[in-house]
Design brief:
This protein is mostly helical and 72 residues long. The chain has one domain: Orthogonal Bundle (434 Repressor (Amino-terminal Domain)). Helix content is 53%, strand content 8%. The protein has a two-stranded antiparallel sheet. The longest helix has 11 residues. The chain is globular and about 35 Å long.
Length: 72
């Protein structure tokens, strides 16, 4: 996960719900388990670049819309 995951702001749940998708539907579109989507939404798991890109493509948004670094 890296040392900086606590500085990562995560908008996944908000964008997923705005798209009208369940965790299961998003997981199928991004080719990952529903548990992975849940873990990302809860800040337990930081996705790889490839997974972040797949999620963004499924939600029709940018990775920057999904994840941002908290300003220090």
């Amino acid at each position: 996960m890296g040392n900086h995951h606590k500085n990562l702001l995560n908008n996944l749940e908000t964008l997923r719900k705005s798209a009208g998708l369940t965790q299961q539907e998003l997981s199928e579109g991004a080719e990952v388990s529903r548990k992975s989507i849940n873990a990302i939404e809860n800040g337990i798991y930081v996705p790889s670049t490839v997974l972040a890109l797949k999620i963004a493509k499924t939600l029709n948004c940018s990775v920057e819309d999904l994840f941002k670094l908290r300003r220090n």
